[in-house]
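Problem statement: downstream parser choked on a complex file, so we are re-checking the raw output for the fe (ii) ion run. The parser issue turned out to be on our end (a line-ending mismatch), but while we're here, posting the original submission so the record is complete.
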Amino acid sequence: MKAFDEIARRAMLGKFRKDGGAGYTYYHCRRVMRLALALAGSDELRGREIDLKALSVAALFHDVGREIDDDRHCEAGRDFVLRELASLLDADMLERVATLVLRHNDPVNLESEIIHDADLIDHCGAAGIWRYFHLFAHRRESADEAARNYDEKKGEWLMKHAEWAIFQTAKREIERRLGLHESFMREFRRELDGRIDQNL
Ligand SMILES: [Fe+2]
Ligand SMILES: [Fe+2]
């Protein structure tokens, strides 16, 4: 995977994302690759035939298109794979990886379903909280506005992640991570209100 990682770093690491900071796309893609492999190795998927090579390469490049054309990032990612990975993969594998990148939001096979769920997991949890607040700060919002906007956004989008996930293992991990969001936001609002617990 070293040669792939070098290409991924070159394409994504130097870029800044307002929703996640320096190199966010690269670090997100690398986490999604690890999460995808963890899902592939889970009890739920035991015995299923999974192309681990296509899965890991596609997961590592699934959002590379964000740095090229944010609005059509799936198509831009597919084109990037076909262009930049052609010398490292045989024609069949290249086509498979390109399809997985293209369809990571709209899965067509087991490997794309796994990347889809790994992607959802990575939006949630401590890394997700970092991402939201980075975005809010980048928009020059105050902490109070950020807390309010987070609550609105959470309702319409974030809390649906468990529902959108395909595998039970992913749903459970997302629910666990969203529990952290709940307790973090409870504490955040408490601190913003200047409350003190006198029973400690
Ligand atoms: Fe994406
Ligand atoms: Fe992603």
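For whoever reads this later: The chain is about 65% helix and 0% strand.
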